[in-house]
Amino acid sequence: MAYAPSADGSFFTRRGLVFLSIVLLHVGLFWGLNSGLSRSLVTAVLGPIETRIIEAPPEADDKPPPPPPKIETPPPFVPPPDIAIDIPAEAPPATAITQTTTQRPVAQPPPAPPKPVARTAPRSDPRRPLSQPEYPPASRRAGETGTVILDVYVLENGRVGEARVKQSSGYTRLDEAAVREVKRSWRLRPGTENGKPVPMWGQFAVTFKLTD
């Protein structure tokens, strides 16, 4: 669109001034962009921009600990069984010849005869003469006489352990009187075997006779 000149013939009218101002503004902006003026202007208005690296906060360890590893128990050791293999021994060949010797039994010597035992029978002791039994009064009045033979068991110390009638005198009162006296009063020499006193039976005779 053509601009008509003003009535007074001047080019710099108000509209012309506005146009010129717009042109100068664009030129100034273009020059400022190229010369870094805009960057200085932004820095002056907004201030310096500080850039820093912000580390991310550590994650909270809220997870439960992992379960312990499962350890499997090994099976018990079972030793292998002992296997014994019996190998039969090889039999000797049928044609083997064995030599045998026949021995005659050797006659065993006869056993040695037992050693004879030196034995002595019980007997009276001279230091202790044998006492005579008391004559029963009834037998004295009746005139009973006779000899009784007694079996007497003499101990190691010479005392009489037992007495019994082997052969009667023919009168009971006389036999009982003899047995009673032997058990009560007699002290004898014991029998011996190889010189050692041992209990032993011995025979003794008691005679009853009237002297008056």
Descriptive notes:
One of its GO terms (cellular component) is plasma membrane. There is one protein chain. The chain has a 3-stranded antiparallel sheet, with no helix packed on it. Strands 4-3-8 form a 3-stranded antiparallel sheet, with helices on one face. The chain has a two-stranded antiparallel ribbon with strand order 2-5. Among the domains are: 14-46, no CATH class; 119-208, TolA/TonB C-terminal domain. The chain contains 4 helices and 8 strands, in the order H-H-E-E-H-E-E-H-E-E-E-E. Residues 1-9 have low confidence and may be disordered. It is of the alpha+beta class and 212 residues long. Helices cover 25% and strands 17% of the residues.
Short description:
The chain crosses the membrane at residues 12-33. With 212 residues, the protein is of the alpha+beta class. It has helices at residues 14-35, 37-46, 137-142, 172-185; strands at 119-120, 123-124, 146-154, 160-167, 188-189, 192-193, 196-197, 200-208.
Write the layout of secondary structure elements.
Blueprint lengths: L13 H22 L1 H10 L72 E2 L2 E2 L12 H6 L3 E9 L5 E8 L4 H14 L2 E2 L2 E2 L2 E2 L2 E9 L4
Antiparallel strand pairs: 1-6, 2-5, 3-4, 3-8, 6-7
